[in-house]
Amino acid sequence: MVNFMSFTKWFCRRKYLLLVLLIPLLSFTVYHKFYLSVTDVNYREEDQAIQMISRYFVDDMEKLLVQRYGIDPQLMSDQELHNIDTYIEGYLRDKFIIFIDGKKVEWNFIGKQYDIDVMKVYLEIPNIAKDKLNSIGVESTVLYGVYPEQKNVVHIKVKDLKKSFVLIKESDKAVLKL
């Protein structure tokens, strides 16, 4: 019994000492959120169209809409603004630009939907013949005004050719040459 009691005291002291040493280390740890979006840019030969799906965290987009437009969008709620798509589309037209063979092209805003805490935005550029397609470029400055450390990952795919890019504030363009 004496050995067990000695061991228990020794163990408790060690546990206490470990806890005392860890608390200061953990208190100086800074919580840092990772700011990221992911966009898939796919050429669909059967539709002769470039279709894009961008994924943004809902809380990041909400913060952006509040800061940029001074609105309370209430995304993902029953009180979501009825014209919120207009704000989102307007913002993306300014911050998400597509180039075909070096020339800026307009995309169509198809819509958005929510998946847990992510907003998926659907865009399309119709009437693109593959034989006239030599390069696809993307310029994305989405969310840089809110989060300067934002990273926008872009995957561009045409048939069997696929390339991924990580766009940052200092380097916000990507080009896939075919």
Note the overall shape: globular
Number of helices: 3
Structural class comes to alpha+beta
Strand order of the largest sheet: 5-6-2-1-8-9
Query: Mind summarizing the main beta sheet?
Result: 6 strands, mixed
Number of domain modules: 2
The helix-strand sequence is HEEHHEEEEEEEE
Uncertain spans:
28-32
- Tell me, rounded to a whole number, the average pLDDT: 86
N-to-C CA distance: 78 Å
Q: Which radius of gyration do the C-alpha atoms yield?
A: 24 Å
> Number of DSSP strands?
10
What is the strand content? 35-45%
Share in helix = 25-40%
Task: Give a written overview of the molecule.
Helices cover 28% and strands 38% of the residues. With 178 residues, the chain is an alpha+beta fold. It has 2 domains: 1-30; 36-177, no CATH class. A 6-stranded mixed beta sheet has the order 5-6-2-1-8-9. It has a 4-stranded antiparallel beta sheet with strand order 4-3-7-10. The model is unreliable at 28-32 (pLDDT under 50).
